[in-house]
């Protein structure tokens, strides 16, 4: 997709949601970092439930280290991979104390050197906590970048680089939110809801689903239903 078309695509999302925000609950760069670290293979809703009590018990690195793996585990047991995540949260808190005086560094290399923190988590923290133009490519953005032609790529890194090249600079800061929310709620994995997609006219996806599957004879098996099944395969 050419940069001009990509700009129109992202602008359409921007106009529909001028002030996008992350759905994770946090109160500081540290609690954001922990929430994002917990969110891998878990829903934001489940993470928010866990952090509601976890952050009451510990909302800074020293308190988290004092809480310990078992203590952290007690709050996050309903989240996937909770044992490894509890270990990483305590370790990264210890590392923040040892290396950064208990502060979250606004630096990619320093973030990625923390336990359990990869490029995606670092990008979210750099973008949301520090206002940098970073593009965290999660499963939704990866799918959307490829499906729509916005930024095709075989790896999250390729999609990230394609988006960084094509999204207009003034929209880069918020594009991460627009694209995640769009992938999560409209351009869904199994059945993209193209019938009410604000970016539809700028999207290159060939099999757009133009009517809801149960919308009656107009949608029929040739449109929504059939396409929905194919997209799920
Ligand atoms: S038109 Fe359909 S495939 Fe394209 S971005 Fe919108 S929901 Fe996704």
TrEMBL record:
It comes from the Bacteria. It catalyses: 2'-deoxyribonucleotide-(2'-deoxyribose 5'-phosphate)-2'-deoxyribonucleotide-DNA = a 3'-end 2'-deoxyribonucleotide-(2,3-dehydro-2,3-deoxyribose 5'-phosphate)-DNA + a 5'-end 5'-phospho-2'-deoxyribonucleoside-DNA + H(+). One of its GO terms (biological process) is base-excision repair, AP site formation. Coiled coil: none annotated. Its EC number is 4.2.99.18. Residues 218-233 have a biased composition (Low complexity). Binds 1 [4Fe-4S] cluster. Residues 38-185 form the HhH-GPD domain. The keyword Transmembrane helix does not apply. GO terms for molecular function: 4 iron, 4 sulfur cluster binding; class I DNA-(apurinic or apyrimidinic site) endonuclease activity; DNA binding; DNA N-glycosylase activity; metal ion binding. [4Fe-4S] cluster binds at residues 187, 194, 197, 203. Pfam families: HHH, HhH-GPD. It is an enzyme of class 4 (lyase). SUPFAM superfamilies: DNA-glycosylase. The keyword Lyase applies. SMART domains: ENDO3c. Residues 214-233 are annotated as: Disordered. Keywords: 4Fe-4S, DNA damage, DNA repair, DNA-binding, Endonuclease, Glycosidase, Hydrolase, Iron, Iron-sulfur, Lyase, Metal-binding, Nuclease. NCBIfam families: nth. Belongs to the Nth/MutY family. DNA repair enzyme that has both DNA N-glycosylase activity and AP-lyase activity. The DNA N-glycosylase activity releases various damaged pyrimidines from DNA by cleaving the N-glycosidic bond, leaving an AP (apurinic/apyrimidinic) site. The AP-lyase activity cleaves the phosphodiester bond 3' to the AP site by a beta-elimination, leaving a 3'-terminal unsaturated sugar and a product with a terminal 5'-phosphate. This is Endonuclease III. It comes from Teichococcus rhizosphaerae.
């Amino acid at each position: 997709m050419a940069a001009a078309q990509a700009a129109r695509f992202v602008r359409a999302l921007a106009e529909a949601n001028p002030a996008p925000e992350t759905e994770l609950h946090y109160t500081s760069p540290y609690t954001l970092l922990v929430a994002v670290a917990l969110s891998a293979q878990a829903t934001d809703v489940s993470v928010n439930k866990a952090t509601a009590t976890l952050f009451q018990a510990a909302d800074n690195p020293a308190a988290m280290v004092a809480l310990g793996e078992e203590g952290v585990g007690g709050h996050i047991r309903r989240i996937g991979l909770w044992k490894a995540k509890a270990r990483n949260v305590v370790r990264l808190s210890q590392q923040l104390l040892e290396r950064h005086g208990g502060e979250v560094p606004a630096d990619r290399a320093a973030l990625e050197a923390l336990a359990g923190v990869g490029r995606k988590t670092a990008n979210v923290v750099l973008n949301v906590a520090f206002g940098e133009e970073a593009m965290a490519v999660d499963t939704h953005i990866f799918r959307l970048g490829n499906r729509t032609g916005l930024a095709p790529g075989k790896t999250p890194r390729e999609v990230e680089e394609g988006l960084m090249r094509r999204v207009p600079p003034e929209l880069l800061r918020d594009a991460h939110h627009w694209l995640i929310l769009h992938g999560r709620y409209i351009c869904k994995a199994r059945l993209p809801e193209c019938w009410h997609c604000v970016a539809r006219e700028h999207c290159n996806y060939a099999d757009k689903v133009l009517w809801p599957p149960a919308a009656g004879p107009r949608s029929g098996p040739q449109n929504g239903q059939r396409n929905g099944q194919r997209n799920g395969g």
